[in-house]
Write a structure and sequence with these properties.
- The protein is α/β, with parallel strands linked by helices.
- 45% of the residues lie in helices and 10% in strands.
- It is elongated and about 90 Å long.
């Protein structure tokens, strides 16, 4: 490195100039997203002060100087700011291209992303962007020699000035435009989550803080009072398929009113009910899956509490029901850790797995052996499918299911036309519909030995460029309906409906007119499997309103028992 500096004959520069250059770079380049959003907001106003608009870059530069100055000491300067430049470039690309907002939830998603998923975001444009906005500035900072003050006291004095002067500038701007900034900030809280690097640093600190605060939290067993309720009407054991979708939004499902034929397979199945108004618990798998399998509802959900306690799958297991989880996505997020589970490995199913991932038809492989390997008894099989996982949507369906063309066979989806992107995503929805239909047909083949029921629900939705947003993971309070409204389908055999005294016409009405959410999953599955426990809440059981009174009363026997 010294030889390279000598070859380039770079003269030392005062660290204060480098600090100012960094503040300008972060404000005008790596915060281009927040500036463009800010000016977009002003463009929508009927009137605003020109001075207010001009002041925004100076506010960012001054704020950056204040925050950066304490880290400008000799042996900390370059390592610290090289790290910020590289991570800031990555964060800026994700925000600018996909509309991602970095908060604690998004940082959690990043931490839990597996290698295969991470690689799906890599493309030539991302690499070039990272080189130009990250690698090149970082190398320049590394190569340029910096000159620091000779004494500690002089260094302290200089840094005090470096912080006081921008504070005075901010004070002057605040005295002129405080009301304007307060108004814009109050009505557009997402702006604060777009500031680089404070957004992802704050999110990381919050995540680490929560993880360490809860690190010694004792693990809690729940539903140990669970038991199955036997009714005279039950002539066969129950077999339930619980299908957890991935990244499917209701707006793109024909069964939910979408104009394109994305539900051609389930629409041919008599008795398949599509629920029209269902909301997710979160906008990312890391939140939604633990939430829907937790007895907590969305309003009171605490991810760390869920992480340190058992899930719905454990409660079903406590009741003595045979439980199996089949995984074809990025993991069950802890909900299946203590029950029997199978992780689908591409190497084991080469006919179903290409480009590093497996098509969801793989869920049907070996299913007969799993169901018929021993005498019929109550079973719950959960399928966590790959569904519509982005951004490489084109990898989620085989060529035979490429119904909408031209599609978008690339990961930098923002560079595809809107129609290509929609075609590709709609192909994933259509293929998921095919897989759900195939699972339903396979379930029907077991009716001689079981009363059978299927429930499908997606974990969250997806943005496809609406309002400049792509993918998912937006803060829930700010997230568009594309990310929070999800499809849910239910099918049950006549034998299951009769044995459970469920009026299917009543359930069909509920599907069309009722409002539901992931909060309904926990008690609905308990009720469907005839599990009585103090955790069961009749008000959130989708089938409860349409179930015979004697059966419902039996399920509610333990409702007044304190949950454990």
């Amino acid at each position: 490195m010294r030889r390279l500096r000598s070859f380039l004959r770079l003269s030392p520069i005062d660290y204060r100039y480098a600090l100012l250059a960094l503040a300008v770079y972060f404000a005008l380049v790596l915060n281009w997203k927040v500036l463009s959003h800010f000016y977009g907001i002003l463009g929508g106003l009927s009137d605003y002060d020109a001075g207010f608009a001009i002041s925004a870059p100076f506010v960012l530069i001054c704020a950056s100087l204040i925050v950066f100055t304490p880290f400008s000491w000799r042996y900390l300067f370059k390592p610290f700011f090289v790290f910020l430049i590289l991570t800031g470039a990555l964060a800026h690309y994700a925000m600018l291209k996909y509309g991602i907002v970095f908060d604690r939830g998004m940082i959690e998603n990043v931490v839990e992303t597996n290698q295969s998923e991470a690689l799906s975001y890599f493309n030539l444009q991302a690499a070039l962007w990272f080189v130009v906005t990250g690698i090149v500035p970082a190398l320049l900072l590394i190569l340029v020699p910096l000159r620091f003050p000779k004494t500690v006291f002089r260094g302290i004095g200089q840094r005090v000035v470096l912080m006081v002067v921008p504070l005075l500038v901010l004070g002057g701007i605040g005295s002129l435009y405080f009301k304007d900034y307060a108004s814009v900030g109050r009505n557009n809280k997402v702006l604060g989550k777009e500031l680089v690097p404070s957004n992802y640093i704050t999110g990381t600190i919050q995540l680490v803080k929560r993880r360490y605060l809860y690190s010694d939290m004792p693990f809690q067993a729940i539903g140990q009072d669970a038991r199955t309720v036997e009714m005279a009407t039950q002539d066969k054991p129950t077999l339930m398929f619980l299908v957890i979708g991935e990244t499917a939004r209701a707006q793109s499902v024909a069964a939910n009113g979408y104009a394109r034929p994305t539900s051609p397979f389930t629409s041919q199945i008599d008795g398949m009910l599509a629920f029209q108004d269902v909301s997710s618990c979160g906008t990312a798998t890391a939140v939604s899956v633990p939430c829907m399998f937790s007895p907590m509802d969305h309003a009171g959900y605490d991810g760390e509490v869920a992480r340190h306690s058992e899930s719905l799958m454990d409660v079903i297991d406590h009741a003595g029901i045979d439980v199996l989880w089949k995984e074809n996505d990025e993991g069950c997020k802890g909900v299946c850790d203590r029950v029997r589970h199978i992780n689908i490995e591409p190497k084991d199913f080469p006919e179903d797995c290409v480009l590093g991932t497996c098509f969801d038809e793989v869920m049907l492989r070996g299913l007969d052996e799993e169901v018929t390997s021993d005498a019929p008894h109550d079973r719950l099989i959960a399928f966590h499918i790959m569904g519509s996982h982005g951004p490489t949507y084109y990898k989620r369906y085989p060529d035979a299911h490429r119904a909408f063309a031209p599609d978008c066979p690339r990961s930098d989806i923002e560079n595809c036309s809107a129609q290509e992107l929609i075609n590709t995503y709609d192909n994933t929805i259509r293929y998921t519909d095919y897989v759900v239909a195939q699972l339903t047909e396979r379930l029907q083949s077991y009716q001689d030995d079981y009363n059978v029921v299927l429930l499908y629900v997606s974990d969250h939705g997806e943005s496809l460029g609406e309002a400049g947003l792509y993918l998912h993971g937006a803060p829930y309070m700010l997230a568009p309906s594309e990310q929070t409204r999800v499809p849910m389908m239910v099918w049950m055999s006549d034998g299951y409906a009769e044995a459970n005294r469920i009026e299917t016409s009543c359930l069909a009405t509920q599907a069309q007119t009722g409002s539901f959410s992931h909060d309904n999953l926990f008690s609905t599955v308990l009720g469907a499997m005839h599990v009585s426990t103090g955790l069961y809440r009749p008000a959130t059981d989708i089938f409860a309103r349409c179930r015979g009174t004697m059966m419902q009363a039996a399920l509610e026997q333990s409702v007044n028992v304190a949950p454990n």
